[in-house]
Amino acid sequence: MPDTTAVITAPVVMLELVCAPTALTKLTRHPALRTAKVRRPRARPFTLTWYDTASYALAGRDLALADCDAEQLWELKRLGLGWPRRPGMAAASIATAVNPAGLEEAGYAIPGPLQKTASLTGERQRFPVTRDGVVLDCTLITGEAQPITPQGASGASRLVVRLTISGPLTKALDLAQALAADLPILPAFMTLPQEMLLLRGAKLKALPAPALSAEMTTTEAFAIIASGFVQTFLTRLEQIEGRSGPEPVHQARVTLRRLRALMLAFRPILGDAEDRLKPLLGRLKTVLGPARDWDVFLSETVDPLARALPEADPAIDWLRSAATARREAAYAALIDWLRRPDYRSLVWRLVDLCLGSAEPALLVAIDQPPAAEADAALAGETSSPIVIPASTDDLIGSFAQHCLESRWKKTIRPVRELIPMPLPELHELRIKCKKLRYQAEMLQDALPAKSGRKLIKRLTETQEIMGLLNDGAVATELAVSLRPGQDMALREQVLAAEAIGVIHGYSIGHTRDGRAAVIESWRKLARFAPF
Hints:
Elements: E1 12-19, H1 24-28, E2 44-52, H2 57-60, E3 63-68, E4 73-78, E5 93-97, H3 100-105, E6 115-131, E7 134-149, E8 152-153, E9 158-168, H4 169-180, E10 185-187, H5 192-200, H6 218-240, H7 247-265, H8 267-270, H9 273-308, H10 314-338, H11 341-354, H12 371-378, H13 396-411, H14 423-443, H15 449-481, H16 490-510, H17 514-527
């Protein structure tokens, strides 16, 4: 019987890492970048100048054009807003020529008139690094980036330190993780050409990912969904330290839940990738949750309550002050964790997840890719999963149907009646509904047109009604947690007792009819037959 298992060689990729300028010296001396008996070449000066039209016609086509004085070459690259879009991947090169006319002669239409948009002046050092017998090609660029307007260079410069690693995916990721364990090094969330345009003030909009279709393979569908989630997740986490408001924490927490629901849905093809991510995601959850809880408590409980009172109340003022202090402490703990090696390890494992390095449990026979596709992979333009299922049983349409039907059966069978169900158990049931909703949302394009939308609508209604009961209980718990110790002044203890009583009564008043509404909504959901 012929062998029905075939594994594709791991793709060659070009990872791009961003390092804090303050850690540059430590980066250049890091043991992971040393190769025995090989003297590292000297860094060479260079200036890169980017060009586009006044209306950013090239950027609108997901293209970037740059002139490198050291090589006397013009290079056309992918800007990185299109698909495939992966965090940590360098901008893919398309073509080079001695001038734009040469690119046009090669068949690439360059719009005009061109004008300078940004420049990067600094040093570039290219050197090999051997990792477990595999040679990786590394390039370190350091310099000062400056936007260029029609009036000339502006003063909004920025220091840039980027390291690219070219080689087999697993070895390149291994080197990146070794560096990140000791240094503030993260994957590039945007390509270098993107960073230059944003420095100039251009507004960039990523092109939408391809919609899922029932005939798509599960690994291809997973790559599309995971890349979108991870890109959003990492972008939101990066925004938290700037303290621009509650939205980054809120969206990061929502995307964290979506990621966990995604891994649960695709568990059959992820191998041990989920097990490697869960502990780190769990640690992030423990510091992300309190920051969001206090944001919600202040904005949706304390502030509405204060507005409802005819005049300022000392107890509510005390409550706001105490809750604000607790929120600041929660944010400080979160930001501290985001600066630690655990966070950087999580980020690189998420990049690993996006690039498809986790091996599925079941492998099937496949044809080798055509030469053109292989060349594209070697150029870093694609990062197909290492193993691709070809059987119709592994198409996302049938996979999604089976996944959601199984999750539906587990969700719709509560262990007891809802009337006497304690709030903690009701909250667990709500979480099941939320996971099912997230999975239905991410897979709905692979389902029959109406079934997915109807299921999402019913689940959303039930989840929101259940959430009202849970929000009241959480608000009371948070208020009680603010109670001062017996060693505090009597006045503060009295104000705390009044505030806790007000919050408890406020929560009861807003959820008095909640249990009946939950039961009615659940009955409608249980009667619904989506499959």
